[in-house]
Request: fold
Amino acid sequence: MTTTKKATLGPWTDDENTAIVALYFEMLDYAIPGKQYTKAGLIRIARGETVGHECDKFDGILSNRSKGSIEAKLMNCSAAHRDCCPTATTMDGYGYRCLSNYQGKLKFAMAAELDDRLTDHGDRHMASSA
Reply:
């Protein structure tokens, strides 16, 4: 009897890190003002499993990553967000607690997104909620 072993993917690529950070902020943009959304639904969109959503920034880049892998990486995003902006409101309070042992390239992707948001939107998600 032969057993098939699922291929193990390597470290997350720069494109995957950019996509997971975009997904993280998509969720945070819903969570902070209390808008209705489902985390599982947004993960399905990011994996390319759901079509017809106006958010085309993911383009199925995360389709090779499992739901569990994506959720763990979202917890890493909370930690990277906190590390980049200690007073920011993160997803830590919205279901993705900080998981601090994260890939260094994720912090670069987070910092780039935060810089873009600061340029585009002022201090959105950069300051504390107080």
